[in-house]
Write a structure and sequence with these properties.
It is a single chain. By secondary structure, the chain is an alpha/beta fold. It contains seven helices and eleven strands. The strands form two sheets. It has a nine-stranded mixed β-sheet, sandwiched between helices. Helix 3 crosses helix 4 and helix 5 packs parallel to helix 6. The radius of gyration is 18 Å and the shape is globular. It starts with 10 loop residues before the first helix and ends in a 12-residue tail after the last strand.
Length: 268
């Protein structure tokens, strides 16, 4: 009931863990491309629009233009591949009083300077939610990636507590063994340093089954049915640790599942 708690827009997920100011949440997926960036973006954008959260989302890979397209598709519930200039203007109008900031600096290639920039942004903007997407991108140029990640997670936790923000750290999985490819990940499957999970207050894993094609010239795709697993929570909610959502990629969104509900009506 704490009014400062971060609320996910999907009831089943919202009941999983209690994320209060000072908390750090790690999110990763079985494989790349399963929608972890979209999931966090969907959740934090809704929180900024409906709960007044001030969000700073630092992007290492997605460009501001790509996120603008995702935001317009998400807000208007219109296919991201068919947005018009008028659609973008309408989305911008709806976001006029929303505090959602996108950060990116391609000159910063290591962890320390990125966290310096984020700390300055927290102070200047009064952020209540911070996202790093993703932590391994800015650690790969460090001489010792494991030590860099360990130090980064310690600093992120200290920043979360010092400024009372809810921190979301998106991470990558380690390369799976051949016999484990496509299987649901465990908390120990996060790449590099174990501190990415041990220093977090909550850890979420996203999983989508691979839909293999018979045609070798066609790329395999993932099922739209998405599993959300809570692998760790220092403050667990009163719900289960597993939920199913529906990935709606054209809207950069995830919908709730209900019996006999067509995808276009599952947006929530």
């Amino acid at each position: 009931d704490d009014p400062r708690r971060f609320h996910f827009r999907w009831p089943a997920v919202d009941r999983m863990a209690v994320l209060l100011p000072g908390s750090v949440t790690t999110c990763f997926a079985t494989q790349t491309g399963m929608g972890k960036s979209s999931w966090i973006f969907d959740a934090t954008l809704r929180a900024a629009r409906t709960a007044g959260e001030v969000v700073v989302n630092y992007q290492c890979e997605l460009t501001p233009e790509e996120l603008a397209t995702m935001a317009a598709a998400n807000i208007l519930r219109r296919d991201r591949n068919h947005l018009t200039k008028e659609d973008r203007q309408e989305a911008a109008a709806r976001l006029r009083d929303v505090s959602y900031y996108i950060g990116r600096n391609t000159d910063l290639t290591t962890v320390g300077p990125v966290l310096d920039l984020l700390e300055a942004a927290i102070r200047r903007l009064g952020a209540t939610v911070v996202v790093i997407d993703h932590i391994h991108f800015i650690a790969r140029n460090e001489k010792d990636e494991v030590s860099a990640l360990a130090n980064a997670m310690q600093r992120i936790k200290n920043m979360a507590v010092k400024y009372g923000v809810k921190f979301f750290v998106i991470a990558q999985p380690r390369k799976a063994l051949q016999q484990n490819k496509g299987k649901v990940v465990h908390i120990t499957d996060i790449k590099s340093s174990e501190t990415v999970s041990s220093d977090a207050d909550a850890v979420f894993a996203i999983h989508r089954n691979i839909l293999r094609t018979k045609d070798e010239t066609t790329q395999n795709e993932y099922d739209t049915l998405t599993e959300i697993h809570l692998l760790k929570a220092r403050a667990k909610g009163d719900g289960p640790v597993f939920a199913k959502l529906l990935f709606l990629g054209q809207y950069a969104s995830f919908g709730t599942l209900a019996p006999d509900t067509p995808p276009e009506f599952a947006l929530g």
